[in-house]
Write a structure and sequence with these properties.
Structural class: alpha/beta
Largest sheet: 7 strands, mixed
Distance between the termini: 37 Å
Strand content: 15-25%
Oligomer: single chain
Helix content: 25-40%
CATH architecture: Alpha-Beta Complex
Number of strands: 11
CATH superfamily: Spore Coat Polysaccharide Biosynthesis Protein SpsA, Chain A
Strand order of the largest sheet: 5-4-1-6-10-7-11
Order of helices and strands: EEEHEHEHEHEEEEHHEH
């Protein structure tokens, strides 16, 4: 069986939370959001599990003390692509399939991540994007597809045309990549966008240009793959979690 690992993005400040606390340290039922993500990768037996830290890195490390993770530092917030680059040393020698997860998407089920791996591996893809279909996709990156339904790229909302903003299939920022191929693709990514950041999403176009196969699978439950950006979203996800778990 091909090796499987994970990379959890946990370096952001989360300024829209209106709190000094790093976003991934906000809690549901007394546990930090990032702890739930580590639960998921631990349940699947992935290794190594790399957590990219930046804002309040020491506090994130403390919360995850004793868990089966290693850390990579991203001292400046230069985008998701830069975060994956920063994990190169922690992933040295790894060859296989890498799940890239967000530390503020706490309630992704292990079974859903397992299905993403399965589709990635059996489809022979070098990148597989976990997507969702929303009635209101405002603010999210959109999945771009060709005439035959093949994935051609991802465009961030702020960079999208009016036509692209009509697309309802969105990027959940959860992926499976062939590794170390994604690092090779990141070498081609530039920060020429409205944020001046290195977008991990831009690797999709690079891989396509190289003739590599890119897949996408829409999660059946959009709430399961939702992240937290505001206090209201945190409350809504906590309510969802309690309903789901019967609590």
């Amino acid at each position: 069986m091909t090796a499987r690992a994970s990379l959890i993005l946990a370096a952001g400040k989360g300024t829209r939370m209106k709190s000094d606390l790093a976003k991934v340290l906000h809690a549901v039922d007394g546990r930090a959001l990032v702890e739930y993500v580590v639960d998921t990768v631990e349940a699947l037996g992935l290794a190594p599990n790399v957590v990219v830290v930046g804002h309040q890195a020491d506090r994130v490390r403390e919360v995850l003390r004793g868990r089966p993770v290693v850390f990579a530092d991203q001292p400046e917030q230069l985008g998701t692509g830069d975060a994956v680059r920063r994990a190169r040393r922690a992933l040295r020698g790894f060859q296989g399939h890498l799940a890239v997860l967000c530390g503020d998407v706490p309630f992704l089920r292990p079974s859903t991540l397992q299905e993403l791996f399965r589709r990635h591996e059996e489809g022979g893809f070098d990148a597989t994007i976990l997507t969702a279909v929303l009635d209101d996709a405002a603010g999210y990156g959109r999945i771009l597809r060709g005439p035959g339904g093949e994935v051609t790229g991802i465009v961030e909302h702020r960079d999208a045309s009016e036509e692209q903003r009509q697309v309802r299939e969105i990027n959940t920022s959860t992926y499976c990549f062939s590794y170390p191929l994604v690092q090779e693709a990141l070498a081609e990514v530039r920060d020429e966008n409205s944020q001046g950041e290195y977008y991990l999403t831009d690797t999709i176009a690079v891989l396509r240009a190289w003739g590599r196969r890119v897949g996408a699978w829409a999660a059946p439950d959009p709430l399961e793959v939702s992240g937290v950006n505001t206090p209201a979203q945190l409350r809504a996800l906590a309510e969802y979690y309690h309903r789901r778990e019967g609590g």
